[in-house]
Amino acid sequence: VKIIPENFGRVAVLSAKQIIVQKVKEAEKNLINEEFADKQDELLIGTVELEDADNYYINLGRSNGILPKKECIPGEKIEMGKQIKVYCSKVDGSGKGMFILLSRNHYGFLKRLFELEIPEINDGTVLVYSVARDAGSRSKVAVYSEKTKVDPIGACIGEKGSRIANILNEIGQEKIDIVK
Predict the structure, then answer these.
(1) What distance in Å separates the CA atoms of residue 98 and residue 44, rounded to the nearest whole number?
(2) Any bridge partners for residue 99, and if so which?
(3) Reported pTM
């Protein structure tokens, strides 16, 4: 509805415009905060957009995350414009903007890859007991199953190593020991 108020000067119009723009920005910030608030300790997929001396900046859709170079797998080459899987290690929306800290050498990254690639872990048949990781070198994953007919190590490796091969491709051929 078009309204033409009387006694509405230029200053009042600019003030109203500024308040409306500010409220829209606050609403957008709240939506982004709600979207990423529960993403901590999750596996995310983003596009590598920028690189500086210490960090990569990953586009996660409505927000950007920071992947420090020290949190990358040693010896890994990250290309601009490439889709990449990252582990969200910290989410903080209390500051001016959204701060999302990402990692690829965190032990949680490997645990989430196992959950993604192995359906028995995803449905709870096989449980990941513990993960120890020296990124780029060697990792140890302890698994078990409460069902006696299920071999937890065999379920993780897959037929002819097919399941573990997908994980190895993602983490740069680092050695993985799966123990019961």
Answers:
(1) 16
(2) 92
(3) 0.78
